[in-house]
Amino acid sequence: MKPTTQRPLATASQRGFTLIELMVGLVLGLLTVLVITQVLSLAEGKRRAITMGGDAQINGSLSIFALQRDIQQAGYGAATSPDALGCPVKRQFDASGTAATFTLAPVLITDGGAGGAPDTITILQSNTPSFSTPMLLTGNHAQADDHFTVSSSLNASVGNLMIAVPKTQSADVGCALFSVTSDNGAATTTLSGTNVPHVAGAGALAKWNQSTVFPSTGYEAGSYLLNMGSMVLRTYAIDQLSLTTIDFTPTSTAVTSSVLYPQIVNLQAFYGKDTNGDGIVDTYDTVTPTTSVGWTQVLSIRIAVVARSNQYEKESITTAAPQWDVGAISTFTNLTPTTCNGTSKCLPLKIDHLTEWEHYRYKVYDTIVPLRNVIWNS
User: Fold this and answer.
1) Residue range 37-91, pLDDT digits in tens
2) Predicted local confidence at residue 45, as pLDDT
3) For the stretch 219-243, what's the b/e string if a residue is b when 16 or more beta carbons lie within 10 angstroms of its beta carbon?
4) What pLDDT digit, counting tens, does each position of 322-331 carry?
5) Dist. CA 343–CA 352, nearest whole Å
6) Domains of the chain
7) Cβ pair 302, 272 in contact under 8 A
8) What residue ranges of the chain have pLDDT lower than 70?
9) What distance in Å separates the CA atoms of residue 258 and residue 332, rounded to the nearest whole number?
10) DSSP-assigned beta bridge partners for residue 110
11) Nearest-angstrom CA–CA distance, 46 and 53
12) pLDDT of residue 65
């Protein structure tokens, strides 16, 4: 008879997990992963929102800075005489080209419309290497003449663009753009201390010299020339959700377009006018002056830009147009701001022209820029 072999009983440390214990552990693990995933997703969303908000803040700040910088320089060399402001400047490149005009004004606002669509701002200033001074005509200039006789051509250089301003403006006598030349072929066509020639020729800048831009009666003595150098004629506009510039090209009829800053979705501007002559802006509007007296009332430009974040939010986070706080005492012609932030007044800024505008965040940047060249020359 074989002896019976007894196996030792299994201890607790030797037993495996039961099915129930495995299922409980699996559930706890899944819950832990879910919580961690939600925390990470929330943190990543916050990080993206902060990053994109920072990008929007940078774009908005740089946009308002670029506008402010150019508006501060607006009118340099062009607003020398207040009575010339508003003069239509006729220009034509090449004899086969088409004549066009622009306004002799430091800043020109083109209103986007009553619905609040983005405005455009055009800035005019001289861009000479050193300084710009007006040149007084000491002799009459007939339409077909190829030179101006002036009291002094200080700082005039070959290739400078200049604007001829009549002593007395009228419907038939306006301003004209031409380019300085010098060929040394004759005394009248050679640039000198009292002679400013503008001979038409094959050169790119000389092609601006078309006699048809001058009035048929010519310019009388006492008229003057404005030295614009290569001339800055720049338009700021909103295009494809970006702040862009369109620049005049001195050597052709083409323009140069540049994208400055993305996610800028609206631009609004107002003329700040002193209507009672006390030197203080008392009203804001978008009505472009039609006379030199009206232009001398424009002492500042008030602007606002709306920057949008890049981050698309799943939920609708913006329910109304952002508000432009214009203060408690500002007066706007043909506009009725709503009361906001206590006693302040606010103007809504249009954003509903954008696709799914409710799913983005917006911020308004604004400033008031004095037209110092107009103020100093007045």
Assistant:
1) 887 777 666 666 555 557 788 999 999 999 999 999 999 999 888 889 999 999 9
2) 61
3) beeebbbbbbbbbbbbbbbbeeebb
4) 999 999 888 8
5) 27
6) 52-75+232-377 (no CATH), 128-230 (2.40.30)
7) yes
8) 1-16, 43-53, 378
9) 32
10) 120
11) 10
12) 96
Distance, in Å, from the CA atom of 203 to the CA atom of 84, rounded to the nearest integer, reads 29
pTM: 0.85
Quote the CA–CA distance of 356 and 332 in Å, as a whole number.
31
Looking up tokens 């800024």 gives: 349
On whether the CB atoms of residues 315 and 45 are closer than 8 A, the answer is no
- Work out the number of other CB atoms within 10 angstroms of the CB of residue 79: 27
